[in-house]
What does this fold into?
Amino acid sequence: MESSIKNWPRLTVWALVFLFAALADAASDPAMIETAKKEGQLTLWTSSDLRTANRLVERFEQKYPFIKVRIFRTGTGALHNKMITEALAGQHNWDVMNSQMFTRDLIKRKLLARYKSPESDKLLDASFRDEAGHWTAIYAVPFVLGYNTNLVKPAEVPKTYEELLSGRWKGGNISIDQDGYELLQGLVLGWGKEKATGFLKKLAAQNPIPRRGNSLRVQLVVAGEYPLLITMASPVELARRDGAPVQWVPLEPVPVGFHAIALAERATHPNAAKLYIDFVLSREGQEALRSVQRIPVRQDVEAHPPNLVKGYARVILQLLQKDEFDEVVDLYKQIFNLR
It folds into this structure.
């Protein structure tokens, strides 16, 4: 009896180790994992930056060393065009993709399979997933107001969209994204089309400076080129952590876009791809995303800091039909006189 009691702690520790290992894979079907082992590989197409893609793949391959991931990376528009062009030519060279999702065109063309990951029930908001299972968000992209803290005192920082219309910010003092269609879409969702377009026309009369690239525009604000910019929250937060004189505030309602992940309808390695999707949406995968300054979408993984996605009124952007998206793009260009 004494010997059994002495051995109990050691046995318990090993039992817990095996239990936790089993729970780690509990979200994925064991039969799917076995089939994924036989497939042995998958091809990921992504428009995330390589630092983000490589971190996820590195953690995934550590967890599932029997699967090797091949990565192809390009911009969102180029990625979607490549998917469509190759499909029209009868080529199906990817298993899983992640990118921004602006329209339902890929679904309409039957390029995305339906797969509802068991991890998708743990998302912050039901709007971060497609009800039919064609895609699931993996990280959030809020659009906020950034500012140079050397040029703008705390009391002077606009706290509402309307405060951007002050004479103080007229004449090239606000940087806007040349491709910032999310701002228009988000304000239409939050305010209605008439109020949203009315506001943006007044903002255009402030003569903001349009330029492509969120990270580049943040760098220009850091350098003192402009005092204010409307941009993604993450690059401002990253620059701030590195000691740059920038900060951001949410103007409500905050448009929140997202990068989504999806399974190919004609995947060559469908089970390995599903396992990858489960991993990216799992707590471990979301923590990996947070480690490269992405904003998690799980309830049990806090953003760093949490106010990146919480504590303000938000509108989550939804996929549009292609003609609806084209209308948004055309209207945005018209309002800001963009070619």
